[in-house]
Amino acid sequence: MPSQPEPFLLINFKTYLEATGKKAVELALKMEKVGNETGVTVGVAPQFCDIAQVAANVKIPVFAQHIDAITPGAFTGHVLAESVSAAGATGTLINHSERNLRLPEIERAVQRAREVGLTTVVCAGTARLGAAAALCEPDTVAIEPPDLIGTGRAVSKENPEILTDSVKRIRNVNSRVTILCGAGISTGEDVYAALKLGTNGILVASGVVKAPKPEAVLLDFCNAVRRLA
Ligand code: G3P
Fold first, then answer.
1. How far does residue 12's CA lie from ligand 1's centre (Å)?
2. pTM
3. Residue 204 alpha carbon, nearest atom of ligand 1
4. Which long-range CB contacts under 8 A does 172-178 form with residues at least 24 apart?
5. Active-site residue 105, yes or no?
6. Which of 32, 66, 96, 107 is catalytic?
7. pLDDT in tens, 16-52
8. Which atom of ligand 1 is nearest to the CA of 142?
9. 66 is a catalytic site residue
């Protein structure tokens, strides 16, 4: 098992207007500031059209929200790994529950990302699917039960078993990947519980992006991380 990696907090901007265009850059700068001030590693996942301007303005990791399992060529409307990398992304989400892929596509997308040097976070909705995703050898698996996404009811509180079961099953098939969890995370306590259950961090969206003061919520998360340090 890898020595405990630094907890990682990844903020998914989804397609929320609060994090679109110029607002995506403003939010990313706020997230970076809190990360720098607390010493906690944070990253952001803006929409494709915002990757370039966000990456040009921050030094924290910028992730694409999806890439397709394609190679350069005639794939109109698809998302090429080389394109998001050229725009400044250093990582990508794959198989988010709002942008699902079939298992062979997940495996191929992870390979494509690796060929381009993108860090991969493969999402899964159950512990078993998490283990299947880990067999595709991504850098990270993110466990997000779809029924809790966007509810404000945290997976680490509402369904801690899915996290302990996921950590066990994933570690059984791949001891190198790191494990994030997401869905409903909205307080420092939710983050603290997630880390105590053996995960290496969180993937969050509405709890931060839709908050009146996103930087205050992230600061609460970071303070929870520091409590564990
Ligand atoms: O990718 C993060 C996401 O699906 C969780 O959403 O809004 O429950 O934090 P949310």
1. 7
2. 0.97
3. 9
4. 172/131, 173/131, 173/134, 173/135, 174/134, 174/135, 174/137, 175/1, 175/2, 176/2, 176/137, 177/134, 177/137, 177/138, 177/139, 177/140, 177/141, 178/2, 178/5, 178/8, 178/139, 178/140, 178/141
5. no
6. 96
7. 999 999 999 999 999 999 999 999 999 999 999 999 9
8. 1
9. no
